């Protein structure tokens, strides 16, 4: 009983609030960014631009894993203790890496990267080659008054509910949404547990596991997204053509993924669990 104690750190509150703010700041980039590109770019160039946007979104986690690999090699109290007095190494189970350093570096980098967005114009002049039936939408004219004028919040929510109902009643979009949820759920689970699997089964350190994941898993995904955008631009695919292309590639990907069932290692011998104490 003397060894048991309740955790007293409230650090999780800061991590929770930080991720909350990060989510609020990141969310508008994808929907409004894609709408921005779709309104003001040539129709045949939109797939490439969207592919570039998603490719960069995949390169970010890759650099995050590499940064995590570097931070995991540094002791958690770096800058506060004499590193010469540390007797354990990253291979020791008691080692705790400088997990907080990645948040600090990422936060500062995100802040600097957000500054150029302040200089983007509210609207651009469409190229003559773009479709005339597309209408640009000035989101700031709706969002900003709703923030500062409470009497306009209710109409905004009413319009949002109507738009959401129309979108979810679209069978093609709803099917695509369900498919995306399944894909991302499997991908996130794979990406979350694969580093731990490498640590436990192959005896790799946390630093090396993150390095290998960032270097081998995410770049092929980014390259695939970019090539998909180029293929759609070259063959000028319609919605039906893009759907068939996506189905074919997804089917091949899932077929190849089945090979993971044939890869594995024997369980470690743990006294009292996999083998007897004798």
TrEMBL record:
Keyword annotations: Disulfide bond, Ion transport, Membrane, Transmembrane, Transmembrane helix, Transport
SUPFAM superfamilies registered for this protein in UniProt: MFS general substrate transporter
Annotated GO biological process: monoatomic ion transport; sodium-independent organic anion transport
Any GO MF annotation of the entry: sodium-independent organic anion transmembrane transporter activity
TM helices/strands, residue ranges: 46-67, 97-120, 172-191, 211-232, 244-263
UniProt GO cellular component terms: basolateral plasma membrane
Compartment annotation: Cell membrane; Membrane
Keyword Metal-binding: no
Its membrane topology: Multi-pass membrane protein
Gene3D superfamilies reported for this sequence: MFS general substrate transporter like domains
Protein's name according to its UniProt entry: Solute carrier organic anion transporter family member
Family membership noted in the UniProt record: Belongs to the organo anion transporter (TC 2.A.60) family.
Pfam family, one: OATP
Primary location recorded for the protein, binned into one broad class: membrane
């Amino acid at each position: 009983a003397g060894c048991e104690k309740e955790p007293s750190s409230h650090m999780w509150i800061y991590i929770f609030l930080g991720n909350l703010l990060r989510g609020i700041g990141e969310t508008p980039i994808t929907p409004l960014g894609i709408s921005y590109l779709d309104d003001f770019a040539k129709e045949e160039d939109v797939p490439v631009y969207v592919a570039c946007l998603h490719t960069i979104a995949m390169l970010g986690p890759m650099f995050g894993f590499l940064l995590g690999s570097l931070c995991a090699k540094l002791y958690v109290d770096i800058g506060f203790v004499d590193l010469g007095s540390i007797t354990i190494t990253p291979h020791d189970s008691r080692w705790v890496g400088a997990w907080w350093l990645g948040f600090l570096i990422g936060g500062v980098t995100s802040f600097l990267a957000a500054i150029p967005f302040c200089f983007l114009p509210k609207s651009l002049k469409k190229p003559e080659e773009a479709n005339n039936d597309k209408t640009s939408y000035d989101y700031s004219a709706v969002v900003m008054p709703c923030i500062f004028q409470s009497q306009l919040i209710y109409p905004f929510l009413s319009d949002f509910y109507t738009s959401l109902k129309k979108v979810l009643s679209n069978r093609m979009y709803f099917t695509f949404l369900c498919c995306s949820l399944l894909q991302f759920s499997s991908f996130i689970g794979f990406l979350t547990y694969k580093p731990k699997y490498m640590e436990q089964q192959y005896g790799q350190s946390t630093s090396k596991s993150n390095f290998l994941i960032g270097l081998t898993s995410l770049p092929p995904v980014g390259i695939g997204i970019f090539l998909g955008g180029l293929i759609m631009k070259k063959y000028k695919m319609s919605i039906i053509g893009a759907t068939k292309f996506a189905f074919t590639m997804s089917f091949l990907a899932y077929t190849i993924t089945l090979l993971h069932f044939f890869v594995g290692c024997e369980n470690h011998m743990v006294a009292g669990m996999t083998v007897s104490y004798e």
